[in-house]
Amino acid sequence: MTRLVIIGGGHAAAQIATSLRMKKFEGEVTLISDEPVVPYQRPPLSKMYLSGEITAERLPILREQAYEAAGINLKLGVRATAIDRDGKTVTLADGEVIGYDKLILALGGRARRLDCKGANLAGIHYVRTMTDTDAMRGEFTSARHVLIVGGGYIGLEVAAVARKAGKHVTVIEAADRILARVVAPEVSEFYTHLHSEEGVNILTGEMVAEIEGTDRASAVITASGKRFEADMIVAGIGLIPNAELAIAAGLGATEAGISVNEHCQTTAPDIYAVGDVSWFKHTFYGREMRLESVQNAVDQAKVAVEHMMGEDAHYDSLPWFWSDQYGLKLQIAGLSTGYDTLVVRGDPLDRSVAFFYMKDGAIIAADCVGRIAEFMNAKKLIAARIKVPAAMLADDSRPFKEIAAELLAE
User: CATH homologous superfamily of domain 3-110+241-308?
Assistant: First the structure.
């Protein structure tokens, strides 16, 4: 292998570059991204970058000089339009054709758009790229009423930043509770209470039917007839994987993502797919999935590089995530789907609490708010697949590190 091409500009692409350097890869490497900047951190876009606490200069994962030092040829601000599997080439929007021996697709995804009447008006924003947040910041500074569509992590993080900035904030969520897709009702209740205490107006079970405005959005009408005026609207309603390039190339991809095996290979052995766009079977949970997380992007990138360089690398990392709201860090270990028991450790009213998801007596996931010891040790307990007494988990009088050590020693 002498020629490697990477398509993508997120955490996975940056990790590929880092892994290649660590593995002392000496071939020709080209990184293609349709964004005009080097791969950067996306989590701050809805938090510290939106608030202005950090500048654009702090977002890059690696500086441009690091790519130059590693001998990586950057093709920024240009889109890959086609993959020729037989000829092993990638065609760019400017007509350039680049050959490869191995190809890694780190294509990521794009924000799902609203499709109601008025959805194309100015003043409606999404959070996925630096450009998205840059477009918001000018309006955000002057806005008094901020309306957020979607009660997921992105929407709630923006709500927290807006309240800290003194805005009037309303969150409209179609489901019967916020974070319904990813957490237990008790965790949804915790975050509903947190945001309500901070002054956010949260409405659940409400669909956006129409957005009013002449040239720009000025109000939202819900399906039940409620009307909310807004100076700006932010929608956080999900992510669509950028799988079209792989679908067109016949790589076993669908709208759900690009199917890969345990080595992150597509149906074409010389082509890998990693990060938000990859669809794979997780060995620990025994089901197929697509994960939107920095951890998944980074770990899959490592596996892809190791495998294409001849190592017997398999992806089996335990998923983990995080969210920052009002200075509280939520750290999530594992996936809670299919749990049969929830154990609460601590008092939610104290804003320091851990929620343990159990299945057949073992922990499968944990949501930890301000509880680093619980998060770190929950990952070990989940991986060990051991039976854990619920009463022991709930006993907040003992240090959790001590509890975990006792359980893991058995």
Answer: FAD/NAD(P)-binding domain (3.50.50.60)
